[in-house]
Amino acid sequence: MGQHEELIQIINKSGAHHAWGVKHCTRVYLLAKELAEPINLDDEVLYYSALLHDTGRYPAYALANVDHSLRSKGVAANILQRMAFPSHKIPIVLEAIENHMYYSEPGRSDEAVYLRDSDILDNLGNIGLTRLFSLIGQDELIRTPEDAIDRARIFAEALPNKVYTKTGKRLAVKRREEILRFLSGIKKQTSEFAYI
C-alpha cells in the first residue's frame, strides 16, 4: 500500500464524520491547487497538509478542550515521522495544519495560505450548506435545522472577509451569494423560518 492510500485509510478508520473526512480533505487539496495556479506549490506538502489538517477532530484522535488544529498538528507530526516523510518538509506541513482555521492568521508558506483559504471556502456555498446540514445533531453548535441556518448566515457574513488570496476572495463572493440565495428561498418557503 502506498502512502496516499495509507493516509486515506487512517482517516477512514478514525471515525471521521463525512463532513470532515476524505472527501472534504480532497476538495480542500484540489481547490488549493486550483486557486494557486500558476504558482508552483509543493504538491507533496499541500497533499499531506490537506489530508491531515482535520485529524485532531476525528474521534480516534480528538482530545477534550484541545483545539483541533493543534491536536491535528501533533497527530500529523507522529504520522509523518512514522511514514518517513522528508524531514525538511515536516515543519511546513505542520505550520499549514496549525494555521488552517479561519480564526488563525495564514501561515508563512504559500501552501499554508492556500490550504487555509480552501478550507474556509469549503464552508461556503452549496457545499458548505450541504456540510452544515449533514452535521445536525452531530456537532455541539448545530443541534437543529435552525442552528444550521444561523451558522450559514454567520458563515456568509464572516468567512469571505477571512479569505486571503485574490482568487479565493473572488470565489468567496460567489459562494456567499449561493448561501444568501438559499437563505432567502428557505425563508420564503417556511414563513420566515417558522416552519423549518
What does this structure look like?
The protein has 196 residues and is mostly helical. The protein has two domains: 100 residues, Hypothetical protein af1432; 74 residues, Methane Monooxygenase Hydroxylase, Chain G, domain 1. The chain has nine helices and no strands. Helix 5 packs parallel to helix 6. The longest helix is centred in the C-terminal third of the chain and has 24 residues. The radius of gyration is 17 Å and the shape is globular. The model has no long low-confidence stretch (mean pLDDT 95). This is Putative domain HDIG-containing protein.
Poorly predicted runs are none
Counting DSSP E segments of at least 2 residues, the number of strands comes to 0
- How many distinct domains? 2
Q: Could you state the order of secondary-structure elements as H and E? A: HHHHHHHHH
Rg from alpha-carbon coordinates = 17 Å
User: Which outline best applies?
Assistant: globular
The share of residues in extended strands comes to under 5%
Roughly how many Å apart are the termini?
47 Å
Q: What's the level 1 CATH class of the largest domain? A: Mainly Alpha
The CATH topology of the largest domain comes to Hypothetical protein af1432
Give average pLDDT, whole number. 95
Number of helices: 9
CATH architecture of the largest domain: Orthogonal Bundle
Classified in CATH, the superfamily of the largest domain is Hypothetical protein af1432
Structural class: mainly alpha
Helix amount, in percent? 55-70%
Largest sheet: none
Organism: Desulfitobacterium dichloroeliminans (strain LMG P-21439 / DCA1)
Protein name: Putative domain HDIG-containing protein
Pfam families: HD
InterPro entries: HD/PDEase_dom (IPR003607), HD_domain (IPR006674), HDIG_dom (IPR006675)
